[in-house]
Amino acid sequence: MAILDSTLNLQSFYPSDLKILSIEDTHDKIIIHMHSTSTSCTCHRCGALLHQHHGSHRRTVQDLPILGKRMILDMQIYDYECNSDACASSAPTETFGGFLSYNSRMTDRLEDFACVLAVETSCEASARIMKSMNVKISGDTVIRLLLKRYSKQPAKICGSSIGIDDFAFKKRHTYGTIIVDEATHNTVAILDGRDGATLKEWLKQNKHVTTVSRDRASAYAKAVEEILPNCMQIADRFHLHQNLMEAVNKILGREIPATNEIPINSPENNTDLSTSQIEAGKKNLIQCG
Ligand SMILES: [Zn+2]
């Protein structure tokens, strides 16, 4: 039979270099006062292992709430000296091995939770749910967290054949451009706008592309022609079919009247109908009309 312990080792939920000094428990929040005991850290810019303290500062960050109470970490943490050429004038702050991002006011696990909620619902819904859990966060902050994670992802490499199309972030207001690898059908880039300007910048970084499948609008065609003049441009089947259907609908709308009455008593229409069938038809027509 398992032995149940009534205590919880709170220190085990935090990095070993971040020691708990005291805990305040109020009616709506828990404040944990902590200080760093680290003697080294990894520079968040250049990756160098640093050993020289530059100073220290106090930072207040939010962590995952406990039983509906807001969790505040009041931390005294170190800045380190980084003497590499890339960081000569900086004093990077320790990040405790991924526990706390540089300059962040939330622990990484709280940011992760906000992003997971946003992906499953929306940024505003994520913020509303988290506020109900006593986390202070706005929809705009959730958007910034998602963008930060997106920017950290390694650039996706696409093949030589791509498909380009536009889409609406918000219909009739803001549009974007999506680029798909034709071989894998994976999305390789989401760009702002659909006027071809951002597409040009993307193509400059991907000059190995030899085939572009696109719609028949001129913006993308001009961008590809300008940056990759030898690239084969293909009007894709979906847009050809879409354009054909639009043209057929336009002709039908112009040539055929919206209503076309068929006389019930017309000899050519009722040669095979009995008198009772015609009467039933009239009755249905009256009921429907
Ligand atoms: Zn550095």
Strand % is 25-35%
Helix content, binned percent: 25-40%
| Average of pLDDT | 87
Based on DSSP secondary structure assignment, what is the total number of beta strands? 11
- Helix-strand pattern: EEEEEEHHHEEEHEHEHH
Number of domains: 3
Low-confidence stretches: none
Compute the separation of the termini in Å: 79 Å
- Bound molecule types: zinc ion
**Rg, please?**
32 Å
Helical segment count = 7
Principal-axis shape equals elongated
Largest pleated sheet: 5 strands, mixed
By secondary-structure content and strand pairing, the structural class works out as alpha/beta
The neighbouring-strand order within the major sheet is: 9-8-7-10-11
Describe the structure.
The protein has 289 residues and is an alpha/beta fold. The chain folds into three domains: 15-99, no CATH class; 106-153; 161-238, 2-Layer Sandwich (Nucleotidyltransferase, domain 5). It contains seven helices and eleven strands. The protein has a five-stranded mixed β-sheet. It has a four-stranded mixed β-sheet with strand order 1-2-6-5. A two-stranded antiparallel sheet has the order 3-4. Helix 4 (197-204) packs parallel to helix 5 (218-227). The longest helix is centred in the C-terminal third of the chain and has 19 residues, at 237-255. It is elongated and about 95 Å long. The mean pLDDT is 87. Bound molecules: zinc ion. Zinc ion (ZN) binds at residues 43, 45-46, 48, 82, 84, 86-87, 92.
